[in-house]
Amino acid sequence: MRARRGMTLLETMVALALTAIIIAAAAALMMAGSRIVHNTEHTADSHDASRFAGEAIMSMVRQAGAGAPGGIWVRQAGVPVRVSAIFGRDGTTGLGTTPNTPTANGSDDLWLVVPDRDYLGEPCVTPGAAVSVVRPGTGALQVTCTQSLKPTSLHLVSNMTSAALISNIVVTPPSPGVPGQVNYAEAGTVGFSNAPEKGGYQSGDLVYPVRLVHFFIGPHPTSGRPSLLRTEGRLVADALGRPFSEPAATPPFVVQENVEDLQVAFGFDASGQEDPSQYTWRHGLGSGFEPGLRTVRVSVVATGRNPRRNTQSTAVLADDKPITTENHVPPAAVAADGFYRSLYTRRLELPNLAAANL
Fold first, then answer.
1. Structural domain count of the chain
2. Res. 29: pLDDT tops 70
3. Which NCBIfam families does this UniProt record tie to the protein (predicted)?
């Protein structure tokens, strides 16, 4: 009979070596796969963040300026001033967008006057729906009803061409034979109305609640990462002399995390031909009313949550650094940080600011 024997030392060493090679190859393959999955998820994450942020802004832009293509009258320092329903600051001059505080983050901001979502609802029934003015003139308003109005909100009084923004309203419900009444803080300002050239409000004007919405880039309250933030404004001038500002004690709402840049361009129909190819474009728009604003182009840059890694997983990718958007050009010497950037750009015509479409 042949004698039984085990593996020799040499055979054992060869087997162990082959096993080690196989394990090392498998580990390297798993690490490479993990890195690819991580980087792919990071890229997809940045795509989603930029798209969600851009669409959140555009959903508000679509509604902005309803009833005020000819501007909005507000009271500043006791004087009626006509302002735009859409305006924003250009951050590339060094003025960033931390609320009302100059910074150097290079982003723009955007202010919008947005009607209550139910302002076209059933009058006197739907909360937030518009009610009609029944007596011309200035001062306190006499209206068909007051059930739809929201005493804690700002309101527009609109003739569907120009509007007046009123605050601190006090409503008196109608009684038999007597219309409802709306008093407000600006009622005592001489000549204040939505149509001072006509001697004041006119019968048939609409009164409905509105919001002052401010979009800007700022740090996330938890992570500190740049994010798209939104606040609800008030009718008080900010540090830059613009008519709206946000209450200091109210924290901003985080619209989307990991958004590092917001750029807004404003298109004007300077020729009056209503030809989009002939529009002139501006970066930054003051709050004072200017006719001819027809379109807005919004660009948003977002990143993923964690840096991407190179093939050795030892350093970030050298090409992952801030990108140029509109007229915002990052410094050439900026270091790579590993965050892939996704750019979302959308242009939207502003039908609410084109009086011919109403």
1. 1
2. no
3. IV_pilin_GFxxxE (TIGR02532)
Over residues 234-270, the pLDDT tens digits come to: 999 998 889 999 888 889 999 999 999 999 999 999 8
**Is residue 32 in a domain?**
no
172 touches 236 (CB < 8 A): no
Q: Which domain does 297 fall in, by range?
A: 45-357
2 located within any domain: no
Q: What is the pLDDT of residue 358?
A: 43
Please write the tens of the pLDDT for every residue from 282-308: 999 999 999 999 999 999 999 988 777
CA angle 284, 286, 287 (to 5 degrees): 135
- Rounded to whole angstroms, the maximal C-alpha distance in the chain is 124
CA distance 59 to 50: 14
Q: Reduce the DSSP state of residue 175 to 3 states and report it.
A: strand
Q: What is the DSSP string of 77-142?
A: TTEEEEE-SEEB--GGGS---STTS--SS----EEEEEE-TTTTS-TTTSTT--EEB-S-BSSSEE
For residues 204 and 158, the answer to whether their CB atoms sit within 8 Å is no
Structural domain includes residue 217:
yes
